[in-house]
Amino acid sequence: MSDTDSPQTWDHPTVRLKQGELTLVQSLGATGLRQPCLVQYSGEAPGQRHALPEGTLSLGRAPDCAVQLDSPGVSRRHAELVVQGDTVRFNDAGSVNGSWVNDKRVRAPVLLNDGDLLRLGELVLKFYGRNSVDALLHDHIYRMATVDAGTEVFTKRYVMDTLAREMRRARRHKRPLSLLCIDLDHFKSVNDRWGHNAGDTVLREAAATAHGALRNTDVLGRCGGEEFVAVLPETTLEEARTLAERVRSALAARSIALQGEDGADLRHVQTASIGVATFTATLTTARDLLGEADARMYEAKRDGRNRVAG
Ligand SMILES: Nc1nc2c(ncn2[C@@H]2O[C@H](COP(=O)(O)OP(=O)(O)OP(=O)(O)O)[C@@H](O)[C@H]2O)c(=O)[nH]1
Known about the structure:
Elements (H helix, E strand, L loop, with lengths): L16 E2 L2 E2 L1 H8 L5 E4 L8 E3 L3 E6 L6 E2 L10 E6 L2 E6 L6 E3 L2 E2 L4 E2 L5 E4 L2 E6 L4 H14 L9 H18 L3 E8 L2 H8 L1 H18 L5 E4 L4 E7 L3 H16 L3 E4 L5 E4 L3 E7 L7 H17 L5 E2 L1
Parallel strand pairs: 5-6, 19-20
Antiparallel strand pairs: 1-2, 3-4, 3-13, 5-7, 7-8, 8-11, 9-10, 9-12, 12-13, 14-16, 14-19, 15-16, 17-18
The structure holds guanosine-5'-triphosphate.
C-alpha cells in the first residue's frame, strides 16, 4: 500500500454501515469526483489499491513510478497510463515480460473500461473507472480487513505483512529498517476504575496520539489488547529511538477526556513503555525483530514504565 493510499489517510469518505444497510449508492453520490483506480489481484499485496490521478502515470518497480509495483517479473518501467477525465489509456513501455488487457497482449495504446483485467508480467490488476460501485465495495471490504475497528490503526495481520515486505526490501536494497513495540502502562486499571467504555476511549485516543507522532511512511498496527507495533522503513536505530521518544512524550503530554460509568467527567494521562529494535546482521527474521522489540519493551516496564528502551 502506498503512503497516499493508507487507510489512516483514506482519500474518500468511508462507506459506512447504517442500521445494517450498506449505503453504497448514497456514498457514491456524496464522493462526487472519484479517481479511477487499479487494485492488485495477485502478488505480495493482493487488495492494494492504487488511485489514478489525472496525467501520465508510469507503472513499474522503480521507486519513482507513480504506480509502484514491487513484484518479480515487473520491469522497472513496465507500462504507462494516461488519465484524462473519464478516459484512461494503457500501454506497455517496452517491458521485458509484456503487458496484457483481458488476455490480449498490448502492443499499442488501449482504452480501458471499468472491470478490465490487466497483467504486467505475472502481476494481475483490475481497473475500476471513476464512480465504480464495485470499487467502493472493494474499499469497504479491504478496510474491514486491514483497519482495526476499535482504534482505526492497522490490524495485526496488515502490520505483519508490511513487516515481512519491508524486511525483504531492506535486505535486497541494504536499507535500514526499525520497529517499535508500544505497550500502554497499567491499562487494566483504566477498565477497573472507570469501566470498559472508558477503556475503549483511552485505547482509541492513545492510538490516535501515537499515530500523530509518527511519520506518514510509518505503519502503526494494533497487535494485542493494548499493544501496538510500528514498522519504520528507512529508519536507523538512532532515528527510531528519537521517534519512540516522540511517541512516548506525546502520550505523556496528552490528557484524555473520559466519562466514568456514573457519567462523571474525568481526565486521564495514558503513558506507554516502548521497545525499539532494528534490522541487523543478527536480527534477520520478523520473529527476531519482534522478539527484540518486545524484550526491550519489557525492559522499559521493569525500569519503571513511561520510558523507551533499546
Ligand atoms: N476496554 C478495553 N480493554 C481491553 C481491550 N483489549 C484488552 N483490554 C484489557 O487490557 C488489559 C491489559 O492488562 P495487562 O495485560 O494486565 O496490562 P496492564 O494493566 O496494561 O499493565 P502493564 O502492561 O504491566 O503496564 C486487560 O485488562 C484487558 O482486559 C479492549 O479492546 N478494550
